[in-house]
Amino acid sequence: MSQEGYDHTAVEKRWQEAWNDASVYRTPDEVDDPTYVLGMYPYPSGKLHMGHVRNYTITDAYARYRRMRGDDVLHPMGWDAFGLPAENAAKERDTNPRDWTFDCIDTMKGQMQSMGFGYDWDREVTTCTPEYYQWNQWLFRRFHEAGLVERRDAEVNWCPSCDTVLADEQVEGDDELCWRCDTPVETRDLDQWFLEITEYADELIDAIDGLEGWPDSVRQMQRNWIGRQYGTTLDFDIADHGPVEAFTTRVDTIHGATFFALAPDHPISEELAAEDEDVRHFIEEEADPEGDEPNGVATDLTATNPATGEEIPVFVADFVLSDVGTGALMAVPGHDERDHAFAEKMGVDIEPVIAPEPDGWDGEMIPDAPDVSEAAFTDDGVVINSSEYSGLDSGTARERLTEDIESAEATTQYRLRDWGISRQRYWGTPIPVVHCDDCGSVLVPEEDLPVELPEFINTTGNPLDAAEEWKQTTCPECGEPATRETDTMDTFVDSSWYFLRYVSPGNEDVPFDLDRANDWMPVDQYVGGIEHAVMHLLYSRFVTKVLADEEELDHREPFTNLLAQGMVQLEGEKMSKSKGNTVSPQRIVDEYGADTARLFMMQAAQPERDFDWAEEGVKSTHRFLARLTDLVEAYAAGDAPTAPADADRDEIDDYVAGEIDAAVAIAGTEYDDLTFNVALREAQDLVGTLRSYRGHADPHPETYERGLDVAVRLLAPVVPHLAEELWETLDRDGFVVEADWPTATADRETVERRRRLVANTREDVRDIVDVAGIDDPERIDVVVAPDWKYDALEIAIDSDADNLISELMGEPHIRERGDDAASYGQDLQANREALQETLSGDDEYDALRAASWLIEREFDAPVRVERAEDADDAVVRKAEPGRPAIDIVE
Ligand code: ANZ
Ligand code: ZN
User: Which residue's CA is the closest to the ligand 1 atom numbered 31?
Assistant: First the structure.
């Protein structure tokens, strides 16, 4: 064990117990300044992995930071405890999903506690308990009452090996394999329960614009998933079959529709298949909607183009999808790539009816046709070859044609489908329905909830089907014998509202206390994996909106700010059990301590970025904490000499005081943005500064102690245990978790200007020494510009006058500088675009004086910082705001 500096095991255990005893993480119900910080709850699969540790360190650090800022923080944790893996594990181990799940929860909870995550465990939520899932059933009833539940026959993805329905996202790759077992997925028709999320499609997509605290990528993924398209539906007549509806977003191209195409499972295709051997063969043997190339088969039918009256051939084609639009399309090979590829293959005409809009188009002239023989021209443009519509722009043509064609109607299409929640599985929430021969599907009344799961039965199929006794019940309406629904709910139902349960977790009367929910919601900061960017977030948004409409929740969006954390990798690859490249959080905690693990992760990269695990980095993080401990302990023990308390302040004291201010100002704004890596760099640099302060001077006790105090507080959100220990060593009152965040005495812009000034000045000295080949400077003079130059710069920044020089010369105190003023004015004029505000002359002087010891040390020569009035005119002339003159005496 590496015990250099401090005994992390003892320290961490000690403070975890102390926090527990004092209930420091308990959240009051009534609060003034609520901040809700939430990490996506884990699936209890066995042990925490590094991805969990990273996720929960981010929320924990942020929650602790907000608490130190004085907010009332809700930071709960729970378990996404239903799901297929528990059922499979139970079958393998000959136990039951419940015991297996609770074992995993025990282990993972212990690990979370050993990481020092500050959760209010009184609010723990476990979705596989009847206390929780009864409210899923309650929700189902509410949705039903609101007309948002439907039971319909649906084609589902079926995994023959797992013996279950799979959601689309559980079908992977072009080969359509089961996400769990890699078996090729089949399709089946089953009666399924659906929640009608499509009723909310418009709001779900429109409200994305307001989600400014979400990453753009996630917002775009949500938009794409909903996939709203504005277009037109219109009929093409097919002899003997009547009007057939098609959907198009490009009705402006209708004069170029040279064929019509039907999906393989369009009703007409199925009719044709019964008579036409070629069609049957194509549908059954060849059609491959996922294929790279469009395939199809000609039919004997023709369709009438409603715009031209022309008869065009009808194909059955696999690139026409049955669940998009109407499953039939008008094909325009001149302007659509798939149609083009198909037309080339089948020898159908390709005709241009849209031309690119010419530069400076007058709206009158009809442009030349583009060459569409090789590739389609897919942009909007000017309509050509289209009788009276020729010469219109695409947009106008779409409007006119939609008006003029009798069957045409403006339509909005969505890619989003209703949410199929039925799963033929045991380990989930029973859908609260009873099937009666006379009354049909009847909802279980509210007073009979929860419908509890029966004991687990180890069978190959759905254990609920085998639970004969459980299945037999009576109909709530007529009292006759009836059977229970054996489907359980998709676990995304559980996670679509769990964030509401945390506000009043023990409540036995309602899923969530409305007043509390209105206070705490929305979640201020949500953190989780990008793999949940679509379904989980979309379902949570949907359920929140329904609850706003049906239950008077005040909020229509659940998550104000969202952070999708990056992956923890090993040698550039995602850590995963299957690749065998995982690093065990437990080992890291044992060897280096939770604080080291947390600090290493948070400083390694910005939370959104992927980063590589590096054992060396972990070690050096641990050494840093050991050095910090030594520094604080030496001070507290009186081993480090400081100047007497009433000593005069030296330049170096002011310099360090300035660096403390800088660290506070910068770390605070970085914690606000969750860019912990930058905040921590400040804290670590500050510790470095304090160490060299002690090494090079007798530190001023007030400054030195403030420095240590500030360093401990800036680190506390990320290294809570050690911070607590050092807080005590510094003899501070109470817990550091409950301490105030240090107040910044300077703003970030000021401290950054100060630093830039010092760094640039040192750089300038270095350059001069180099260029002039000075080996051993005798003295270095640094001269700050005269005040009038600062005034002139300020005027120049604010001024929009064409002639800056004459404006400057309008100021008597500048004009009186004569040639100097004119020449500085010209410099300003020449650089007008790039002028930047600087500190005042006084502040520059103070900052440079405070930093002069740094230059002295570097060049081993005394440094004199001077104001313009005390210096030589020839030197002063070279000084500018932000750039002092430097004079090196050899
Ligand atoms: C004619 C047309 C002309 C179309 C043109 C596009 C370009 P995108 O392509 O994403 O904008 N479509 C309609 N129903 C379909 C189905 N069931 N399966 C596959 N494709 C279908 O989506 C809109 C277009 O998808 C529609 O507009 C239609 O082709 C095609 F120059 O109609 B278009
Ligand atoms: Zn009945």
Answer: 335
